[in-house]
Amino acid sequence: MVSFQLYCALVPVCVLSVYSIFLHVCGPVISCSSDKAMDPEYFQSHIMCWGTLGTVRPFPNFRPDEDAMEIQAALEKKDVVTLVRILTNRTNAQRQAIAETFEEITQKDLAAGVKKAVGGELELLLLELLMPSLQYEVYRLQQAMVGFGTDEETLLEILCTQSEAKLREISAMYKQLFKKDLDKELKGETSGDFSKLLLALLNKEAVASGVQRDIESLSASLNGKKGEAGLWIDILTSRDSDHLNKVLDALELQRGQTVDQALEKKFSGEIRMGLKVLVQCIQNPYVYLAKRLVNTKTPILQGIMVSHAEEDLLCIRAAYLKLTGTSLYTALQKKYKGGHLQALLAICRSED
Known about the structure:
about 350 residues; mainly alpha; about 70% helix; about 0% strand; disordered N terminus
């Protein structure tokens, strides 16, 4: 199995209708089947059209031994096209099977081989693709806190968009890999109400409450001279999404302004950003993630694309197109080039 610690050493510091899903998945994807980064056999899978809002799906007739041998030859020749074609057309579970088989056949670590054969941004992307998915989220959190300064919004992005169960797994994995408690690390990197928000998100657990009661509580807090961050943190991190959307919709109707606008006026600093991000993720996480992709740094873009490739990248793509008027596929072509571009396009999968 691929070692996460090795990666850390190697890597530097929608709601859509069924018809919409068909259009976004089946139609556009087939239109790019000639792309050299795509594996032709990928399109033979019936899984392409149903059952997921991700862009990367289980590869049909998967043979890890054949992939491992082909990758071995590609590493020797520094054949970037083959590496990209295979690693971007397999799910994370399939990539783990390839890495394990590669090590059994060659007695070498696949990540180390990629490190020697590939360089630059493509190297980093391929190494990220090789990380087990849970460890990748841990890696992103750790990278957001390591070194000088803290990437507060990446911490928020991960904590706001993951389920309670997934966050428990991430927390346990962080402890296993770094021998440190994630909540203590977050507390040490942040302070005040913002720190309280992050910890509440990490340990969120749904608590039953009345919708009207929460509406009245939040509305009253906005009438005061200063916002009550504790009240917002408590309610927004301890109710299910359906409940919260009812509360936020009613609050906006009652006050004649968006919750985002209300928070902008009532709070300041990191807690304002934190509450605004959380509200955006409650109301529409795909729009928030699409906004994150606009004119962002490469590590953030790759982080979102790799993290969401198998779950809901189609929804993020749709939100990006509506937000910017340009497809993510086209935007990537304007910013990147070479093998790195081909890998990103393969993960994005198609034009919208």
